[in-house]
Specification:
Helicase, Ruva Protein, domain 3, 16 helices, 3 domains, two-stranded antiparallel sheet
């Protein structure tokens, strides 16, 4: 199966929309899961229990009709709990095999809760599974259909023996409890689930669709962002955010997936925002990189922030202007500053003329500026 860019983008967008639909305030988490699946990579969701981590991954698997495996790991978890018990009948015949039905070796999408609690025996097996999609069990090499493995934890691992496993999770997100603003909506959504008014998700894509989307991701043109990515990696390194060589090489795939998800066959600087999912290591890094990206990239988020800052300054100036009398010399300074602000708005939106949200806010700010310019003109009797 092959898809055009338009078909692949439409399918990915629909998946993201359906994935986050029943969840309140979980767009970033849904984005990370979607990007991971588009890339065929693994993700870890770090946050306290009760923040819908496992529910979102389970829903993703249901939307794809994928074989799903979920397990909560402890330091006492035995390999057989994940990989299946030994097949006694086969063993009697001198054949070493496991009964893998319903276990991790047969899963296409897996969710391992508290993954960093696993024993060293399980950790070693997971490393090869995540990298090669192979389980080495004694003298047996078992190839698996695993597409993406999602881990969850309430902490970032600090133990040296967990570094290799943690680095295999290309995408990471910090799952925080919802802000107070979302509580009312959360209560409504929770009650709808309790009374059964939210039905079980039905498949909207197949694993074959997902693989076709993945092949389309690899066709996205990345020429326009490679130099910007290199510059950003240098900036991040200087600010103490180190990225391993393995991750540097794989980041471009996430950039390409983000471009496709947003309907682009060629990546732009906007798509470098995925660094907020691929660079952070400790929890403090998630906030730190947000600030860096806002400063270094001319993204939609940065433009919106600057437009809102200009609007605040314009409204503050408006209060002062209305308090000044006719022919006050300070009116001339305000006039010049408002002209500068208007030119800055026009410059900011130059590359976003097809974005409805930015265009709407920019027009509102420009109208406010023009009204104040008229007030100043009238007071100066020009």
């Amino acid at each position: 199966m092959s898809l055009t860019f338009e078909e692949a983008s439409a399918k990915a967008q629909r998946f993201l929309k359906e994935l986050e639909a029943p969840f309140v305030g979980r767009h970033d988490e849904a984005m990370v899961i979607t990007l991971s699946l588009m890339c065929g990579e693994h993700s870890v969701l770090v946050g306290e229990p009760g923040t819908a981590k496992s529910a979102m991954v389970r829903r993703a698997a249901s939307l794809l009709n994928a074989r799903f495996f979920k397990y909560l790991l402890t330091k006492y978890t035995e390999p057989s709990e994940l990989f299946g018990p030994l097949d006694i009948r086969a063993l009697r015949k001198g054949v070493y095999a496991r009964v893998t039905a319903g276990k991790l070796p047969e899963a296409e999408i897996a969710f391992l809760d508290e993954i960093f609690n696993a024993s060293s025996a399980i950790l070693n097996t997971l490393l090869s599974l995540m990298m090669e999609r192979v389980i080495y069990d004694g003298y047996v090499e078992l190839r698996t259909p695993l597409w993406s493995l999602f881990g969850a934890s309430n902490r970032v691992p600090e133990e040296p023996e967990l570094e290799a496993l943690y680095d295999r999770f290309l995408l990471r997100t910090h799952v925080k409890p919802l802000d107070q603003d979302y509580w009312a909506e959360l209560l409504e959504a929770s009650w709808r689930i309790e009374v059964g008014s939210i039905s079980e998700p039905k498949p909207i894509l197949s694993m074959e669709d997902l693989k076709a989307i993945n092949r389309t991701v690899l066709k996205v043109n990345l020429d326009n962002v490679k130099s910007s990515l290199l510059r950003l990696l240098l900036v991040l390194e200087e600010k103490g955010l180190h990225v391993t060589d393995r991750r540097k090489g794989k980041i471009l795939k996430v950039v390409a997936a983000h471009a496709l998800l947003n309907g682009r066959s060629a990546a732009t600087e906007d798509d470098l925002v995925v660094l907020k999912y691929t660079v952070p290591r400790v929890l403090e890094d998630f906030e730190k990189i947000q600030v860096i990206l806002m400063e270094e990239l001319r993204t939609k988020e940065r433009v919106l922030r600057e437009l809102n800052e200009i609007r605040t300054n314009v409204r503050t100036a408006g209060i002062k202007i209305k308090q000044l009398g006719p022919f006050d010399p300070r009116l001339v300074d305000h006039y010049k500053n408002l002209k500068v602000a208007k030119n800055k708005v026009l410059s900011l939106i130059k590359d976003f003329d097809d974005d409805e949200e930015i265009t709407k806010i920019a027009n509102e700010v420009i109208n406010e500026i023009d009204e104040l310019l008229d007030v100043i003109t009238a007071k100066l009797n020009v």
